[in-house]
Amino acid sequence: MSTDTAAEPDTSFSQRLWREGEPTYRQILTHPFLLGLADGTLPREAFRYFVVQDSHYLRAYSRCLALVAGRSPVEDAVRTFALHAANAVDVERELHASLLGELGITEADVEDAGVAPTTLAYTSYLTSVCATGSWAEGVAAVLPCYWVYREVGRTLVERSSPDPLYARWIATYGSPEFDAVVDQVLTVTDALDVSATEQARCREHFAVTTRYEWMFWDAAWRQYAWPV
Ligand SMILES: Cc1ncc(C[n+]2csc(CCO)c2C)c(N)n1
Prior knowledge:
The protein is mainly alpha-helical. Helix content is 79%, strand content 0%. The site of ligand VIB has 13 residues, from helix 3, helix 4, helix 7 and helix 10.
């Protein structure tokens, strides 16, 4: 991995990060979970697993955003990430109220299911980077969650889904409102002042969390549970 940034003066930092995740992103678009979501053939059990694990994910993710907010040296970024941390909590409540309700899943079911291996691995990685890495490393680690969902949303919204529940999920991430949210984070990312060494770490975190995004869908597709 090159840490030489001077050779590419016209490439924004976010574009350089995206390059690290792009090979994984291409595989995300063709993952059977997302193909099934778009054509309506995704088994309900896989979607149910996803929504339950996403509830656990969002709890940890909102705390990561609050950490990134609190550690930001830039006031605008404090505001952006603190708002998004609150929104992530609201998204979870909204999920509970609508999707979980329609799937017949209760709060007790979410607790009983517990945190699955991939959810724990992804959220633990995010939490450790946001708590113990530099501020820029935290931003790079949380970014794929936003960016991958925007790109997936944009791609799927053109096809939508014959299943109204899946269509609703797609519409959330394919909306202009969500587009604006992601733009705010990309603006923060492109304003980061990072050394070459720190850039290399950021690129690594971005690559890892993009891979975890793929794994999160894959775990739901395979209903992956603790082996022992
Ligand atoms: C595994 C997983 N990854 C990303 C998202 C999307 N997402 C969750 S919180 C947030 C930002 C603030 O609301 C975004 C974009 C998800 N739901 N689940």
